[in-house]
Amino acid sequence: MSTALDMPRFVRAKQVEALPPPNLARGPIAWVRENLFSGPFNTVLTLVVFYLLYVSVPPLVRFLFIDAVWTGSDRAACRADSGGSEAGACWAFIWDKINYFIYGSYTISERWRVDVFFALLAIGVAWLLWLRAPRRDLGAVYFFWIFPVVSYILLTGGNADFGVRFWIGFAIFGALLIALFAFVATLLKTSLRPALIMGGGIVAVIGITLALVDIDFGLAPVPTSLWGGILVTLLVATVGIVVSLPFGIVLALGRRSKLPIIRMASVIFIEFVRGVPLITVLIMANTMLPLFLPGDITVDRLLRPLIGTALFASAYMAEVVRGGLQAMPKGQYEGAMSLGLNYPQMMSLIILPQALRIVIPGIVNTFIGLFKDTSLVAIVGIFDLVKTIEASRIDPNWAAPTIGITGYAFAALFYFIFCFGMSRYSLGVERRLAAGQKR
Question: Signal peptide location in the record (predicted)?
């Protein structure tokens, strides 16, 4: 019979050797040692990067700043035989052509309208993106409705002069749209009254918008063939971003719909658009779209790439949003349904806010790619910033060796500022939205 002394012990008899305290060193030296020289591979990689920076940065700084020419009125200032430096950037060319780079060939006496457009755009972006801004709901109404209408009237002059035939067609379209909302509500077995209110509200908003565009405000018309430069670049990017996110959400929900017609239509659109390059979409929108319209209806040459770019970005945005929807746990859907929420309420109040938070990096990445892809509209003859630079560098008054490089450096700086700003803002939003989960 075993005694208590013979039983195995599960208590350590000797004291465990104390571990050394963790390294709590802080400061720049500790950060460099931890992140750049933490091991042999990282050390070699850091040294290689430092060598590449040593080789490339000094010549770049010398070209862009030290040997650059900052003042001058023609090519003589940027040539070595006239006191300039052939090896340096010719920023005098940028200052001389800056108005063309901003406005294109927009009528000089009417360029104040473009300045107002830039100011309204800045107000809308700041109001919508500043997380502590007051009444951001009104900011959304301003940015997505008031700003586009006012901008169109300012830039084009308004006075669309639609005519009686157009308004009759719009009345028929409005009736069909309201009937479609009622039909969908019947299929989803939801209340008919909210569907009719939503459909009627959409028709009313579109009608008010078209009525404002149709009014003559006394502004001189400026054809889009005179638009160019930064104006066109920001316009295409803004329209693409504003349209792609809501339309992409609709496509993502349509692809997950239980209705076969809606699901198949969404899948066909997304896969078709994602299967062709943007250049093809722009060329098709520019050359093929007028062929599908009646002979008495023409589509503006700038509106064609706007539509193509927005639809192209919407297809990619739909896949990003669908990834967020698929990442949602099934319990979120079940919890929403247990509260008695119908499908629109469940999506707008429970699912979409969480899904969009998950895919913020993907959404911003799509926006950045869209902003850079605006330069492709030059292929269909639209004078964006890059196209105006190409047109300006062949000016015989500025025929110098470094003109082209300087122009493209200016374009690269412009795109970098906007893309880097979008990237940093998205990181800030991610940290702010993740604060609640960390607590």
Answer: none
- Give me the torsion for CA of 77, 81, 85, 89, rounded to 10°: 50
Radius of gyration of the chain (CA): 29
Q: How far apart are CA 260 and CA 264, in angstroms?
A: 6
Identify the CA nearest to 120 among candidates 147, 98, 155. Answer: 147
Angle at 161 between CA 244 and CA 234, to 5 degrees: 30
Assigned CATH topology for domain 66-72+88-105+228-290+310-324+352-438: MetI-like fold (1.10.3720)
Dist. CA 337–CA 45, nearest whole Å: 53
| Cα 20 from chain centre | 51
Read off the pLDDT of residues 364-382 as tens digits, 9 standing for 90 and up: 999 999 999 999 998 888 8
Query: Which residue in 311, 266, 304, 309 sits closest to 287, CA to CA?
Result: 304
Identify the burial level of 68 via C-beta atoms within 10 angstroms of its C-beta, where 0-12 means exposed, 13-18 middle and 19 or more buried.
Answer: buried
Burial of 165 (0-12, 13-18, 19+ CB in 10 A): exposed
Question: What pTM was computed for the model?
Answer: 0.85
Neighbours of 90 (CB within 10 A): 28
- pLDDT for 400-410, tens place per residue? 888 989 999 99
